[in-house]
Amino acid sequence: MNNNLVADTIVKHCGGSGNLLHVTNCMTRVRMTIADISKVDMQALKAIDGVLGVVEDDTLQVIVGPGKSSKVASLINELMKDSAVDTSVSDVEQKAKMAREKAKKQTPVKKVLKHIANIFVPILPPLIAAGILMGINNVLVNSAASFALTHQVAAVGDLSPAQVVLEQRHLLGISEFLGLVSKALFSFLAIYTGVTSAKEFDGTLVMGGLLGAVTIAPQLPQLGLLPGQGGLIGVIFAVWLMCWLEKQVRRFIPDVLDVVMTPTIVLTIMAAILLFAIMPVAGILSDAILHAMNGLLTTGGVAAGFVLAALFPFLISLGLHHGLFPIHLEMINVTGHAPLFAIQIMSNAGMVGAATAVLLLTRDPVMKKIARGAIPTSILAVGEPTIFGVNIPAGFAFITGSIGAGFGGMMIVLLGVTTNGVGAAGLSALPLIADGKYLQYILAWLVGCLAAFVLTYATGKIRGYGKKTVVV
């Protein structure tokens, strides 16, 4: 089914475009805010050719796969524009009220994680691109540095020994280009996070970016602070507070003075709070989180790797895995590596192994078709297609796949694999692997995949899954 037909059918089974309040997307999912959930035909949605799964949350999430999600979401938004009709104020207010009431039912923890996910989802595509470019550049630089060391190449002028080797190989310009582009994101990530945080909390976008810029300003040591102190956690909290303060100030400022007075007052107050309260406190909190995670990986060893990797598929299935991005990115900012992310992406290996076993076991032609499409996608990039299209519908395969992922996590810790960026999983993660441990990463991934396959296949045989013609 082509993208246009998928979009049309999704809208139809969601009660029509008039039942959609807002539509956006992440890497694999079309996320829709629904006015009246009772008008949605869930079974028909799941049965659409091209839909790999449906998740009911504060938004209705339809999994269509990487690349396709942005195209389908854009087409649905076009359909909403084309069919827009005048509605009464009471209808609009009623829809907004229903959406607010639905949001209130979330637990506080889930609300926080959801906000964090919404903040980082827009940054994710360039984050992946920058991570891949950084990984490619690291391969070039590390290779040159190794050659310079073994052949005793000396520095020349302002060029380091590695740069001299790159210059001799006519790769210095390419290396500088790759480094410039990747550092343009990671060096100024606080600014981008400030902008997306302001959007999430309904504030002024540039004001949010400005607060993010304050946290990385080179003048901070003069105030006894370090650039980046408090990390992205401090930026997000500061922008949330700024958005609240902006709304309060705007209530008392005359309209004629709003454009001048409101940003001036809000910025002055928030800059002071950020510098003298939020950054110091967030710095302590950020350091505590990093020490706790590093301590867990150090003292827990392979057991910690197993447990963490086995739990990540559940976070992904709930859409809460994006809530870990501040931790991953703060680890990269402080240590240059993200060991927790290397463990997280072993969930991909477990889901691929389990889905492969289901493909061999099932006699359901629909399941076979979905599995054949989902497995290559997951091998290349993300695990959602196999999670929602194959393993969760099969039931037991999601559990055995998660256990298999745990064995991959054990190997990650045992082999000392980590990443210097965050992004997609599978083969797409190869350029992100730090210290040239590409073979170790592939070995860990294969172990997780094989363990999941064996567990799933054996469990399926015991349960008689291969003899059934329908998905259970």
Automatic annotation (TrEMBL):
Residues 127-472 form the PTS EIIC type-1 domain. This is PTS system N-acetylmuramic acid-specific EIIBC component. PROSITE patterns: PTS_EIIB_TYPE_1, PTS_EIIB_TYPE_1_CYS, PTS_EIIC_TYPE_1. It catalyses: N-acetyl-beta-D-muramate(out) + N(pros)-phospho-L-histidyl-[protein] = N-acetyl-beta-D-muramate 6-phosphate(in) + L-histidyl-[protein]. GO terms for molecular function: kinase activity; protein-N(PI)-phosphohistidine-sugar phosphotransferase activity; protein-phosphocysteine-N-acetylmuramate phosphotransferase system transporter activity. GO terms for biological process: phosphoenolpyruvate-dependent sugar phosphotransferase system. InterPro entries: Glu_permease_IIB, PTrfase_EIIB_Cys, PTS_EIIC, PTS_EIIC_1, PTS_IIB_1, PTS_Sugar-Specific_Components. The chain crosses the membrane at residues 112-133, 225-245, 265-285, 297-320, 340-362, 396-418, 438-458. GO terms for cellular component: plasma membrane. It is found in: Cell membrane. It is a multi-pass membrane protein. Keywords: Cell membrane, Kinase, Membrane, Phosphotransferase system, Sugar transport, Transferase, Transmembrane, Transmembrane helix, Transport. PANTHER family: PHOSPHOTRANSFERASE SYSTEM TRANSPORT PROTEIN, PTS SYSTEM N-ACETYLMURAMIC ACID-SPECIFIC EIIBC COMPONENT. Its EC number is 2.7.1.192. The active site is at residue 26. Gene3D superfamilies: Glucose permease domain IIB. It is an enzyme of class 2 (transferase).
